[in-house]
């Protein structure tokens, strides 16, 4: 991410200049990029961090062999992705069982995560029209936790409100039935498993790209320079002068 540091350094440099924009030519910009040295090992670790965190098992193994990056336990990635996929597919009971097989302490020490999984299980019962089973499950499994935690109670009440509408498209909490809700719960479980395995719960690469965008936006106010407009190609485009 040498470009990020170049942008930051230029931003600091132009802070002391006049209000007129400084013009940085492509030649000047590329020279500064070439002067920044980043170790290949650090770049490889950044890529591996992304592949492992996001669960790309085959890509991680192939990259490990090609780059010589440190050994990774592929089984842990596979197991974690099985949990994530189960939640994304609405198989919450299966997901909970798989999490406990991995490490029972994950749910024992994270009551919020366990509640959200149980809440997702309730949502799936409602989605499948199992009204009586949903009410019984809510009363036996979720209500006691709501009595101990006000935020849990509010989330439970929002979920139960789904039963009051025949047409959920007109329900103010209808988004709970969206696939995005499953994805949200799956991401929370994924992060908890990563933390339990002493991994970072979020990949570093997206954060660095966000920092790059922020830094470019800040520098835009101070200078005209070759910038990246499309992160997918990372092509430097000459400034409009």
TrEMBL record:
Coiled coil: none annotated. It holds the Pfam family LisH. Keywords: Signal. Residues 76-133 form the CTLH domain. InterPro entries: CRA_dom, CTLH/CRA, CTLH_C, LisH, Ubq-SigPath_Reg. Residues 1-16 form the signal peptide. SMART domains: CRA, CTLH, LisH. This is Glucose-induced degradation protein 8 homolog isoform X2. It comes from Nelumbo nucifera.
